[in-house]
Amino acid sequence: MDEVLSSVAETIKNFAVIYLVDISEVPDFNTMYELYDPSTVMFFFRNKHIMIDLGTGNNNKINWALKDKQEFIDIVETVYRGARKGRGLVIAPKDYSTKYRY
Which family is it part of (predicted)? Predict the structure, then answer.
């Protein structure tokens, strides 16, 4: 996931910024957002948490590693467009529920 984040940072710099936070050093949001996974991606727009419906049941965050750069760029674009329209919950461009994993 680190490679994907670092490789897309330049591409999405016009509408998104990537921040890496060590949850052991900044424990303020750990209980609020249930941050206990090794890697978690969350989206914020104008200091507001933007939820994303990925089909997994957890709309707060992405807690698995995405390997495709374009897939992550599509998710960030979808979140940005929905957040600009004032939506607090956006629908992901792809369904990540387990019924589609072969």
Answer: Belongs to the DIM1 family.
**Alpha carbon distances (Å) from 41 to 76, 81, 87:** 11, 17, 18
CATH assignment of 1-91, among 3.30.300.30, 3.40.30.10, 1.10.150.20, 3.40.190.10: 3.40.30.10
Token pair of 20 as six digits: 């890496």
For 64, counting Cβ atoms within 10 Å of its Cβ (0-12 exposed, 13-18 middle, 19+ buried), the class is middle
Return the bridge partners of 50, or none.
43
Q: Which residue has the tokens 């992550």?
A: 72
> For residue 99, how many other CB atoms are within 10 A of its CB?
7
